[in-house]
TrEMBL record:
Gene3D superfamilies from the UniProt entry: 3.40.50.11350
TM regions (residue ranges): none
Organism, as annotated: Acinetobacter guerrae
Top-level taxon: Bacteria
Residue runs in coiled coils: none
UniProt-listed GO biological process terms: carbohydrate metabolic process
One GO MF term: galactoside 2-alpha-L-fucosyltransferase activity
GO CC, one annotated term: membrane
Entry-linked Pfam families: Glyco_transf_11
UniProt keyword annotations, A-Z: Glycosyltransferase, Transferase
Stated name of the protein: Alpha-1,2-fucosyltransferase
């Protein structure tokens, strides 16, 4: 099984996880086509910084992909190529994908845990970072583990600066995060002794605008090693996430059996349907 890797770290992990699951079911090897990701100027390639024990990385795409629309390629060969390549057309879960034995390559995002949840224990190992926490990150990790803790991930970045991304994704507003804290407190998941660890790609904005009645710790992002921030979030007892695949994975990797994850009920501002939020998580 092979998958085309593209997007930010969160999307790269969805693509890996889904293909990993299909490869496992079929007893096949897992290959990752990095040809697009290596030149993607929006987000850096980071899946190769996770253990990914089962994956083999390929840096060039097959030559036929570059010429598949050429009139020189016979129509019967094009049909054969497309039959073997599954192109995701919707962001909702497609159970048929799990049973399409002819598919040899995946192209899409596959943002639903139903594709791979039965291999959760395997993926927790696959997605461990290759590098170690810094001294500061170890200090934060210890503080998280020794206290009642909850992460809050506030996604801004291109959701705020890029008009197209803003129109498509939208931003979770201040009210959402306050309601999430209120929900967790009313359901006795957190209390006034809980420490809130705030993660963001715009931490300076958060320091000025996120005022809460809890002890807050603003975690400066590791711009070079985003996976470290994701794993720090996972050590918190509970998680409040944005409409971001990055914070989604921070919550999914959380191994607290009693965790409560709060997610926005509207994932895409433009109304695109998605099955990204697991049924066990709370939508607000």
């Amino acid at each position: 099984m092979k998958v085309k890797i593209i997007g930010g770290l969160g999307n790269q992990m969805f693509q890996y996880a889904t293909t990993y699951a299909l490869a496992k079911k079929r007893n096949e090897k897992l290959f990752l086509d990095l040809s697009l990701a290596l030149n993607y100027d929006v987000h850096p390639l980071r899946i190769n910084k996770l253990m990914c024990h089962s994956g083999t990385f390929e840096t060039t795409a097959p030559k036929y992909e570059k010429h598949v629309f050429s009139p020189r390629i016979p129509s019967f060969l094009k049909k054969y190529i497309f039959f073997r390549c599954y192109m995701e057309r919707k962001l909702t879960f497609n159970e048929n994908l799990l049973h399409e034995a002819g598919t040899k390559k995946l192209v899409g995002y596959f943002q639903c845990e139903k594709y791979f949840t039965e291999y959760r224990d395997d993926l927790l190992e696959e997605f461990k970072p290759k590098e170690s926490f810094s001294e500061v990150q170890n200090y934060i990790k210890n503080m998280i583990e020794q206290n009642s803790s909850c992460s809050m991930h506030i996604r801004r970045g291109d959701y705020f600066t890029n008009p197209e991304a803003s129109a498509y994704h939208g931003l979770c507003n201040h009210e959402y995060f306050m309601n999430a804290l209120k929900y967790l407190e009313e359901n006795k998941k957190i209390n006034r002794d809980t420490k809130i660890f705030i993660f963001s790609d715009d931490i300076d904005w958060c320091k000025k605008n996120i005022i809460i009645d809890y002890e807050a710790f603003f975690v400066t992002a590791d711009d070079e090693r985003a996976e470290m921030d994701m794993w720090l979030m996972s050590y918190c007892q509970h998680n409040i996430i944005s409409n971001s695949t990055f914070s989604w994975w921070g919550a999914w990797l959380n191994q607290n059996m009693n965790k409560c994850v709060v997610a926005p009920k509207t994932w895409f501002k433009n109304g695109v349907n998605t099955d990204i939020v697991p049924e066990s998580w709370v939508k607000l």
